[in-house]
Amino acid sequence: MIPRDDNLAKTWLASARDPAIVALLESIYADLATEVTRRGPSCWASGRCCNFEKAGHRLYVTGLEAAYAFAHLDHSHPPLTPSTLTDARNRGGCPFQTHNLCGIHAIKPMGCRVYFCDRSAQTWQQDLSEKMLERIKRLHETHAIPYRYGEWRDMLGLFATQ
Fold it and tell me: pTM of this prediction?
């Protein structure tokens, strides 16, 4: 569990709303998309990847990525609250999964963008993930954004409203 730190959350949110930082993060995501497309994994839109317990994995993100997703949620999405995070944990998955689909597809974190259930993807996912995570870490360092890496729902908990 990530201890609640309102100053850290405010710093990440300010960075996630800064157009220059957003452009840099989105360029990393775009480069990742190019690499993923080049490799051509299959996505069956089964929602298995969003149910961490069933898929047997965890989603880890940086503070900036969690803040980016939170800051760019549209108004059609239900508010993120401690209760919605608890419900997601109880289901074993992501608070943004709607049926078998990602409810935040355009703003999802790097770990979601690189993970595919397709077994052929398992040979390159980890290397590509590490390469892109290093770029996100450099973004944090270059712009003096505090770096923390934690489980997705824990990091989102820093931004959940009561």
Answer: 0.88
